[in-house]
Structure formats: C-alpha cells, structure tokens
Amino acid sequence: MARVQLRHIVQARSGDKGNTVNIAVFAPNAALYEVLVREVTPERVKAHFDGLVAGEVKRYLVPKMLAMNLICRGALSGGGSATMRMDNLGKCYAANFMRMEIEVEDSVNLSQSSLERL
User: Fold this and answer.
1) What are the pLDDT digits (tens) for 10-44?
2) What predicted TM-score, i.e. pTM, was given to this entire model?
3) Which of 40, 64, 89, 117 is deepest in the core (most CB within 10 A)?
C-alpha cells in the first residue's frame, strides 16, 4: 500500500459561485477511480480543507466518466465580493486539493505518466 498525493494520479479543476466551490476530479483509469471513490469521501475532503470550508461537502459520482464532483459550501467566507480573504476564488481549491494524500494498493496500475512524476 502506497500513500500518494492526488497530484500524481488525477486531474482536477475547480471554480466558484457565490460562497460555494466545486472541484471536478478525473481518474485516468477504472482501477484508480475505484480507489478515489473509497478514499475521497466528503468527510476527508472537509478535513483536508479544515478552516476553509465551513459548510457541508457533497460528492457526486460520475462513473461513466471516471469522475466525481465535490461541492463545498461555505468555502469562500461569503463569496468573492464579500470576503476579506486575500485568495477569494474557488479556482485555487483544485491546487490545494491535489496535495491530499490517499492510500493506493500496490496492485493498482498507475498510468505511465503518473509514474514518471513520482
């Protein structure tokens, strides 16, 4: 079992609307998608963003696209025009999210490009 940062194995993109941030996550293959489904839970995402996400985190699975969408409410201290935060945009959340670490079984085939980045 290896502990791996998400940046080595997935792609993600994030954005915001008001005080809500969404993070779309895409796995390169079905085996890694199953690992994501197990490891990237709303509870773990909320813990990863401790102090940044005040509201609930919901997860929507999109298995045919090997993707998931994470909705983080109360994530921008009121929204872009209302917050006093220096970094008040949701597009920065994907970069932060990619530092989250998950457990990946040794038997899971990582893509060649992912292996080169490790």
Assistant:
1) 999 998 888 899 999 999 999 999 999 999 999 99
2) 0.85
3) 40
